[in-house]
Design goal:
The protein is mainly alpha-helical and about 450 residues long. It has helices at about 55-80, 135-140, 145-165, 175-195, 205-215, 235-245, 250-255, 270-275, 280-300, 345-355, 355-375, 380-395, 410-420, 440-460; strands at about 5, 90-95, 120, 125-130, 310-315, 330-335, 335-340, 405.
């Protein structure tokens, strides 16, 4: 995670090793740590699915696949020059325990190979999934929308094959193909949320659940983006999903080899083995001077006067506030100070999510101090949104120029995990949050990462 510059360190929370199926486009591990969304309204006769047991999971899968077929049947001709959508050759619900009489599944030598995974097999043009373990765990840990996002991602690989008639994607990095499939999943989930499909319905919290699944399915920290099985870190996967959700199929189809990924590999065996996050106090001591340097520079470059905020380790309450309305880290203007509640929930969250979850909170509060120095609002949704965006802009600049602090693989993942789970980093000084959903908070943070401080100060 975060590090003093010159000493790369690993994320303390690791994911399951990515399962690889011979001939499959992708397979997902599940770590069960993301936020569950509400139930997705769906239920379709699954008798067209090979091997189905007719249960709830397969009824949800059937509804998803039927709506996917209908959606891409309408949309694909516009991308393919008028060529109609060709339905997939089949779908298979698999019991990894090898139930007697179950049909043979293309691309699998035995049922155990699919345990905990779902995949699209291009040579047979089928989608298959683990009914016994994967789908029930997705529903328990992330909500029904997680089943929808996984199957729509796999269906996205089928869409890729139907659009790539010239072989332009041949030899493309796996991480690029996965980004495009995540984008296609985002396009489809937007239709689910907006009520544009006959069978599936969900709300904003269901979209947060789907994004939680993508975060849970990230690559193990330190995976090289050039790895033959790389799917992307949490930040990259969520970014691709949001590009689709906020865009259209053409946006996804246009994703090409110029796509920029934030995923990093470890720089040496020592980097990989050094392990662990900075503790709470060491992080504060290492990060605060760099926050002061960067935000002070941004304020002075825009004609403002910057006063270095004091750093207080207390209860994170401002004198005129009704309790700790900003959360465990607060900025107060009488006098300018960042108050950090090191005795409350912050240490546990720091250890549970990772040290750059705390770093994101610190950056957003220094962002609030910068807004005040520039005469910008610090209260309400406007103040919270700008501060969160500036935290993203700072995160993109860390480790560049004169920075004495840098990020390690996994740091941005910890930011999006924090933002999906809670709104504290997006609160104004009056406690009003910039957005009520994790989706919107991550979108605002990403706007700073990609657009820099000027984008934040123009309004996001």
């Amino acid at each position: 995670m975060a590090r003093v510059r010159g000493s790369l360190r690993a994320l303390v929370v690791t994911c399951a090793v990515l399962a690889v199926l011979a001939g499959s486009a992708c397979a997902f591990p599940v770590d069960g740590r993301a936020v569950a969304g509400p139930e997705v309204s769906a239920g379709v006769d699954p008798s067209f699915i090979g091997g189905t047991n007719g249960g709830e999971e397969d009824r949800l899968a059937a509804a998803t696949l039927r709506d996917l077929e209908g959606y891409w049947g309408r949309e694909l001709p516009a991308l393919s020059g008028g060529e109609p959508f060709r339905p997939l050759a089949g779908y298979f619900s698999v019991d990894p325990s090898g139930r007697a009489g179950a049909p043979a599944v293309p691309c699998l030598q035995n049922p155990q190979e699919i345990q905990g995974t779902a995949f699209y097999c291009p040579r047979s043009d089928i989608i298959a999934w683990d009914r016994g373990e994967l789908l029930p765990q997705l529903r328990r840990d992330f909500g029904d929308s997680a089943v929808v996002v996984v199957l729509s991602h796999e269906f996205g690989h089928a869409v890729q094959g139907r659009l790539d008639r010239t072989g332009a994607l041949a030899g493309a990095p796996t991480i690029l193909l996965e980004a495009q499939a995540d984008c296609y999943a985002g396009v489809f989930l937007r239709q689910v949320r907006d009520g544009g499909l006959p069978d599936l319905r969900t709300g904003a919290a269901g979209i947060d659940g789907a994004m939680g699944a993508l975060i849970g399915f990230r690559d193990p920290v330190g995976t090289s983006p050039r790895n033959a099985q790389a799917h992307g870190n949490a930040f990259d996967r969520v970014s691709s999903f949001q590009d689709g959700f906020d865009g259209d199929p053409a946006v996804c189809a246009a994703i090409g080899r110029d796509r920029v990924f934030t995923q990093q590999s470890f720089r040496s065996p020592d980097d990989e083995s050094s392990g662990g996050n900075l503790g709470l106090q060491p992080l504060i001591e290492a990060m605060v001077p760099d926050l002061d340097r960067w935000f002070g520079g941004q304020v002075r470059a825009r004609g403002g006067q910057w006063t270095t905020p004091a750093t207080e380790r207390d209860q994170a309450e401002c004198p005129d506030a009704d309790g700790p309305v900003q959360g465990p880290v607060a900025w107060c203007d009488t006098p300018s100070a960042v108050h950090i509640d090191t005795a409350g929930t912050l240490p546990a969250d720091h250890a549970r999510i990772g040290d750059y979850a705390t770093g994101t909170l610190l950056a957003s509060r220094f962002g609030t101090a910068a807004l005040a120095a520039l005469g910008r609002p610090t209260t309400g949704a406007e103040g919270g949104r700008a501060a969160l965006c500036l935290a993203g802009a700072y995160s993109a600049a860390v480790g560049t120029g004169e920075s004495g602090f840098a990020l390690s693989p996994g740091d941005l993942d910890e930011s999006v995990t924090l933002l999906l789970r809670e709104d504290t980093a997006s609160r104004g000084t009056d406690g009003v949050a910039a957005a009520g959903t994790g989706y919107e908070r991550i979108r605002v943070f990403r706007a700073g990462v990609t657009g820099g401080p000027d984008a934040c100060l123009r309004g996001v």
